[in-house]
Amino acid sequence: MSDTCPPPSAPQSAPPSAPPPPDRIALVPVRADSPEARYALQCYYDELSARFGQTFAPPAADPDETWPPRGVFLVARGGDRVLGCGALRTDAPGVGEIKRVWIAPAARGMGLARRIMAALEDHARAMGLATLRLDTAAPLTEAITLYRRSGWTEIARYNDNPHASHWFEKAVARDTP
């Protein structure tokens, strides 16, 4: 799908046949309305549309929700390529929500989603959040597997997302001596 995504507003070279090695991929905070974030989100939405069999076009979110001090938006950058993204926003006092975790097909299987999730959890701790939540859809089986293997627990529905069929939660507060 990443090859069919519209190019971002900022220049980006054509992707090489293989992504760089994992140690050459940086997780970089950017604003959710930046060209890199918009590119990654469009790729994510295109993929969801194909997998859901209907257009996935959520309303635009406030970019300040995923920018300090309220959250963070990360892109995975390998050279000049955007290879993935993920976002964290504060949902309620002490509670955050992870959104929009996506990895370009060419970069899957490298542990990049796990790295993004771990980085978002670290940001949540630094923000003083104790609990994280997320939702996902049934067709995203690899995401469901990742969350379960990463210590997330399925919980009851906590939002009205019409595409979601699974809701998860994870305690991320640091243990204090």
Q: Which spans of ≥5 residues are poorly predicted at pLDDT below 50?
A: 6-16
Order of helices and strands: EHEEEHEHEE
Domains (count): 1
| Percent of sequence in beta strands | 25-35%
> Tell me about the biggest sheet?
7 strands, mixed
- The proportion of residues forming helix, as a percent range, comes to 10-25%
pLDDT averaged over residues: 89
Question: Which outline best applies?
Answer: globular
Q: Within the CATH hierarchy, at the fold level, what is the topology?
A: Aminopeptidase
Rg (CA only) = 16 Å
Q: Quote the distance from N terminus to C terminus.
A: 47 Å
| Count of beta strands | 7
User: What is the number of helices?
Assistant: 3
**Name of the CATH homologous superfamily:** Gcn5-related N-acetyltransferase (GNAT)
Just name the CATH architecture: 3-Layer(aba) Sandwich
